[in-house]
C-alpha cells in the first residue's frame, strides 16, 4: 500500500504541520519513538489539557491548523522575512487575535502589541524549526480559504468564526490545482532555503468540510476539494525525489472499509480507523510491528475515546446552534 | 461576642500561633485556634459530616502531638485562615522563570525574551497557567475544601516572601535572583498579589496579601519581619536557625491577622 520514498527512522527529526488530521501523524510518530520536533514546547508545569487549549503540542510549533498550501507557503515566507502584518490582528470584545492562528490564544491578547510580539516570536520559532527538521510532514486539508487582499495573506479561517467580521478586503478563494502545485513548489523552495537537506512528506486530510463558501453543496465541495488536493499532492510527490506522499486519505475513505471510518458526526475519523492507517504508515517505515500483531485490546480501549484532535472548523457547527 | 477563628497551615503557622498568644489583647473580638503540622500532613485531612478529620493515623498523631487534637467540628468556628502551604510568590517566580510577558520591565520584545530563554506568553495564558499552579497548592486545596463545607469566611494568607538573602543562594532560589537582577521583581510580586486575589475572589475565598511594609524589592521580605521566627513545635519559642530564609516572625503574623480582623469588622486595639 505504501512504499516510503522519504524514510523516517527514530532519530529522524520530524516537523509536522497542516490540517487537523496531521495531529494524529505527530502523535503516532511520537508514540513510535520518533524524534518529533517541538519548537514551542509547553511550559514544564502546565497540564496537557491547558497546553492543548493554547495550541501547544498539537504540531511542531504553535501555528494551529494550517489548512491550505497557501497558508503554509505564506507562513514560511513570513518566518524567513520576519514579517508581521499589523493589519492581520482581529478584535473581539476588546481582545486581539492573530488572524493567521486565532485558535492558539482562545481568549485573545490584551493589546495589539502583545499579539504582534507573540507572532514575531512564533515566526522565529518556525524558522528555527525548519532549520532543525530532517522531514517536514504537511497534511493538506482544504482548497477553500479567505484572503485578506490588503496584505495578500490567507487567513486561518473565515472572518467571524473566532474574531473579526467580514469586510470587503476579505475575499473568498477556492485554490486550483495549478495554484496548489505552485504553492507546494514554493513551500519546498522556502524550506530548502532554511535547510538544504530537508525532505517533505505530504498527506491529505480525509476530514470532510463542515461548511463551504463555494456555493456548492458541501458534499460536492468536499469532493472537489479533496480531489484537487489528492491530485496535487500525488503529482507533486511523483515529480520530486525528496517529496513523498502517504495515502492516508485513501485509507480512510476507501469503499473497501468493512466498518465505518467516521464517527457518528460523519466528520471525525474514528480512533480505530486512525490507528489502522497509522499502523500501515509506521509499519512501512519500519517503526512498528505489522498491524495484525497488535493486541486487540489496544483497539478496544480506544473505541470509546472521543476524537481529541483540535479542528477549528468544528466551531462552525457550534456557531450554527 | 468573640469570633472564633481556626488557623490551619504548615510551618508558617508558627508565626500566627506566637502572635495569637503574644498579641491576643490586640484583637478583643477574636480568638484564634491553631490546627496544623509540618509538610503535607493537612493534605490527608478531609471534611466528613461537618468534622475536619483524617483517616490517616500518622497524620492524626502529628496533629495531636503539635496542637493537642486531631479533629474539630467546622461549626465550632466563625472563620478559617489557611496559611503557608505553598500559596506563595514562589508559584509565580517559577512560572516567570520559564515564560515572560511583554509587560515585564526587562522585556523589550520577542527577540530579547527568546535570548533570555523565556518565551513570551499572553496575559490570558499566564493567568490560566498561574491559576492552574495555584490550584495545585495545598493551601488552595484546603481552602476550597473548607469553602465547600461551610458558609463562614475562609481566608487564604499569603506565605511570606523569602529573605533577600536567597540571592546569595542558587538552586531553588535562582529564579528570585534572576528576576530581581532583571528588575522584574515588582512585576512578579504585583502579579502574584493581583492574580491570587482574583483567583480567590472568584471562588468565594478571601486572599490576605503580604503587607506592603514587610516587602522589599517586590520579591523579598524585610529582615525585620523574619528575624526571630520560630519553629512549629510543641515547645514554644524554638527559634529557626540563623540561615532560615523562609519563615516570618510574629510581627508579620500580627499584620496578617489585622487584615483578617478588618475584613470581619472586628476591633483592633491600639
Structure description:
The complex is a heterodimer of chains A (321) and B (270). Chain A has 321 residues and is an alpha/beta fold. Chain A has one domain: Rossmann fold. Chain A is built from 10 helices and 10 strands. In chain A, the strands form 3 sheets. Chain A has a 5-stranded parallel beta sheet, sandwiched between helices. In chain A, helix 1 (22-31) packs across helix 8 (271-284), helix 3 (69-81) packs across helix 4 (112-132) and helix 3 (69-81) runs parallel beside helix 5 (177-194). The longest helix of chain A is centred in the middle third of the chain and has 21 residues, at 112-132. Chain A starts with 12 loop residues before the first strand and ends with a helix. Mean pLDDT of chain A is 89; it is low at 290-306. With 270 residues, chain B is of the alpha/beta class. Chain B has a single domain (3-88, 133-162, 188-263), classed as 3-Layer(aba) Sandwich (Rossmann fold). In chain B, 38% of the residues lie in helices and 15% in strands. Chain B has 9 helices and 10 strands. In chain B, the strands form 3 sheets. Chain B has a 5-stranded parallel beta sheet, sandwiched between helices. Chain B has a 3-stranded antiparallel beta sheet with strand order 3-4-5. Chain B is globular and about 60 Å long.
Question: Architecture of chain B, according to CATH?
Answer: 3-Layer(aba) Sandwich
The CATH topology of chain B is Rossmann fold
Helical fraction of chain A: 25-40%
DSSP E strands of chain A, number: 10
Structural class of chain A: alpha/beta
Please summarize the sheet with the most strands of chain B: 5 strands, parallel
Domain module tally of chain B: 1
What do the pLDDT scores of chain B average to? Answer: 94
Q: Cα distance, first to last residue of chain B?
A: 19 Å
Helix count from the secondary structure assignment of chain B: 9
Q: Report strand % of chain B.
A: 5-15%
Order of strands in the sheet with most strands of chain B = 2-1-6-7-8
What is the domain tally of chain A? 1
**Element-by-element helix/strand order of chain B:** EHEEEHEEHHHHEHHEEEH
- Rg of chain B: 19 Å
Amino acid at each position: 500500500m505504501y512504499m516510503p520514498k522519504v524514510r523516517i527512522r527514530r532519530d529522524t527529526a520530524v516537523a509536522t504541520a497542516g490540517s487537523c488530521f496531521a495531529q494524529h501523524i505527530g502523535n503516532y510518530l511520537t508514540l513510535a519513538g520518533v524524534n518529533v520536533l517541538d519548537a514551542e514546547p509547553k511550559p514544564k508545569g502546565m497540564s496537557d489539557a491547558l497546553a492543548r487549549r493554547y495550541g501547544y503540542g498539537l504540531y511542531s510549533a504553535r501555528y494551529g491548523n494550517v489548512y491550505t498550501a497557501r497558508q503554509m507557503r505564506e507562513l514560511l515566507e513570513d518566518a524567513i522575512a520576519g514579517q508581521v502584518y499589523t493589519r492581520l490582528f482581529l478584535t473581539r470584545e476588546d481582545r486581539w487575535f492573530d488572524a493567521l492562528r486565532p485558535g492558539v490564544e482562545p481568549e485573545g491578547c490584551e493589546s495589539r502589541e502583545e499579539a504582534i510580539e507573540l507572532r514575531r516570536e512564533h515566526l522565529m520559532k518556525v524558522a528555527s524549526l525548519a532549520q532543525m527538521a530532517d522531514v517536514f510532514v504537511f497534511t493538506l486539508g482544504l482548497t477553500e480559504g479567505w484572503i485578506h487582499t490588503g496584505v495578500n495573506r490567507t487567513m486561518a479561517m473565515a472572518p467571524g468564526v473566532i474574531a473579526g467580521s467580514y469586510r470587503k478586503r476579505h475575499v473568498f478563494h477556492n485554490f486550483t490545482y495549478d495554484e496548489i502545485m505552485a504553492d507546494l513548489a514554493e513551500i519546498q523552495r522556502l524550506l530548502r532555503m532554511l535547510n538544504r537537506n530537508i525532505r517533505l512528506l505530504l498527506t491529505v486530510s480525509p476530514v470532510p468540510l463542515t461548511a463551504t463558501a463555494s456555493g456548492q453543496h458541501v458534499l460536492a465541495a468536499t469532493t472537489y476539494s479533496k480531489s484537487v488536493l489528492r491530485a496535487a499532492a500525488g503529482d507533486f510527490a511523483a515529480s520530486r525525489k525528496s517529496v513523498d506522499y502517504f495515502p492516508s486519505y485513501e485509507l480512510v475513505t476507501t469503499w473497501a472499509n468493512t466498518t465505518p471510518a467516521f464517527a457518528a458526526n460523519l466528520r471525525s475519523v474514528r480512533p480505530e480507523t486512525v490507528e489502522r492507517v497509522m499502523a500501515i504508515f509506521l509499519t512501512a517505515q519500519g517503526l512498528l510491528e505489522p498491524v495484525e500483531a497488535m493486541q486487540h485490546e489496544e483497539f478496544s480501549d480506544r473505541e470509546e475515546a472521543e476524537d481529541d484532535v483540535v479542528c477549528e472548523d468544528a466551531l462552525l457547527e457550534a456557531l450554527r446552534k | 461576642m468573640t469570633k472564633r477563628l481556626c488557623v490551619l497551615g504548615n510551618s508558617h503557622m508558627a508565626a500566627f500561633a506566637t502572635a495569637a498568644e503574644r498579641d491576643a489583647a490586640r484583637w478583643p473580638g477574636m480568638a484564634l485556634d491553631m490546627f496544623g503540622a509540618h509538610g503535607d500532613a493537612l493534605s490527608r485531612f478531609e471534611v466528613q459530616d461537618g468534622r475536619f478529620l483524617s483517616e490517616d493515623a500518622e497524620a492524626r498523631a502529628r496533629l495531636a502531638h503539635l496542637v493537642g487534637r486531631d479533629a474539630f467540628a467546622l461549626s465550632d468556628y466563625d472563620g478559617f485562615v489557611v496559611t503557608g502551604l505553598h500559596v506563595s510568590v514562589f508559584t509565580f517566580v517559577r512560572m516567570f522563570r520559564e515564560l515572560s510577558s511583554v509587560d515585564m520591565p526587562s522585556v523589550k520584545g520577542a527577540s530579547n525574551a527568546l535570548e533570555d530563554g523565556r518565551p513570551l506568553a499572553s496575559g490570558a495564558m499566564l493567568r490560566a497557567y498561574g491559576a492552574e499552579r495555584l490550584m495545585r497548592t495545598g493551601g488552595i486545596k484546603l481552602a476550597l475544601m473548607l469553602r465547600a463545607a461551610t458558609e463562614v469566611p475562609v481566608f487564604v494568607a499569603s506565605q511570606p516572601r523569602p529573605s533577600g538573602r536567597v540571592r546569595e543562594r542558587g538552586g531553588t532560589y535562582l529564579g528570585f535572583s534572576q528576576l530581581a537582577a532583571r528588575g522584574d521583581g515588582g512585576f512578579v510580586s504585583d502579579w502574584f498579589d493581583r492574580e491570587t486575589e482574583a483567583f480567590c475572589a472568584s471562588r468565594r475565598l478571601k486572599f490576605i496579601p503580604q503587607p506592603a511594609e514587610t516587602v522589599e524589592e517586590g520579591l523579598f521580605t524585610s529582615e525585620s519581619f523574619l528575624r526571630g521566627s520560630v519553629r512549629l513545635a510543641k515547645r514554644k519559642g524554638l527559634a529557626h536557625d540563623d540561615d532560615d530564609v523562609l519563615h516570618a516572625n510574629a510581627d508579620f503574623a500580627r499584620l496578617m491577622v489585622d487584615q483578617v480582623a478588618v475584613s470581619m469588622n472586628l476591633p483592633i486595639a491600639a
